[in-house]
Amino acid sequence: MKQWHISYLTGESAASVISSWEKLGDQLFQYIADPAVWTGFILILVKVTFILLGARIIIKLANKALEHVMVERERNPLNLDRRRTKTIGKLLGNITSYVVNFIMILMVLNQFGIRLEPLLAGAGVVGLAIGFGAQSLVKDVITGFFIIFEDQFAVGDVIQTGTYKGTVEEIGLRITRVRSWTGEVHIIPNGTITQVTNFSVNNSIAVVDVSIPADMNIDNAMQVLKDTVMKNYENNVNMVKEPEVLGVQTLSASEIIIRTTVECKPNSQLQISRELNAEVKKALDKYRLEVASSRGE
After folding, report:
1. Number of Cβ atoms within 10 Å of the Cβ of 292
2. Does the predicted TM-score (pTM) go above 0.85?
3. Pairwise CA distance, residues 94 & 173, whole Å
4. Most CB within 10 Å of its CB: which of 166, 234, 265, 290?
5. Could you count the other beta carbons within 10 Å of the beta carbon of residue 123?
6. What mean pLDDT comes out for the span 187-213?
7. Where would I find the Mechanosensitive ion channel MscS domain in this sequence (predicted)?
8. Sign of CA dihedral 146, 148, 150, 151
9. Cα 166 to chain center, whole Å?
């Protein structure tokens, strides 16, 4: 009798479970088959799609507007600092993108019935906790603000900070992107930037040291050097002042080194040095041939 009673209860429990699953399946089928459910779901998808497209359009229009404002400001004859204009334009574009994307996420969550008040309150508490823990992030943001506010460097400048040297591609509130002349992109947290050398603010000096044999007539060599650099100065827009042949820099038994300097536009000294070296080499070779020819006669 006892065994039969247990078997009866087991069968009754199994039937109850099967019945519950059948009811759940019927309810799920009725829910899926309900046109109102699909209508609401499609409506939510349409709204979310419009929100996403609207956000992208707003970001595009904002970037275009900022670009237009920056171009107009650069064309202003009273504007003297185009570097800062370009940097601020990129920063405002990043801030606009962050704000629009944040609002877009809140609107999408609202379409799925998620209440924003508790979410924002919780985000505030979490943000406060993260603020205490992420001190390096706060330091990056504060340093980035002062880099832009004090105009330490701008987009397009050639700088060196620590072991990194290159052209600034982007300045954000958290990181700075620097591209080296060999193509590597260095992403540097602003908080680690403690010392910066900016090569793009003031004019640079190109130094050209020319080595001639000790037995060469020094007056004639210096005259050839002067004529060559002055000819190059007339055709080179990067030189801002006339070159100066300073004279003998070092003297030894086998050679004499004559130094020439020229003030040029920011960060163009290496290019000008290479050009002057090539032109001086050609001029000295021509002078040697003329001297050798005259001696042969």
Report:
1. 9
2. no
3. 9
4. 166
5. 13
6. 88
7. 137-200
8. positive
9. 11
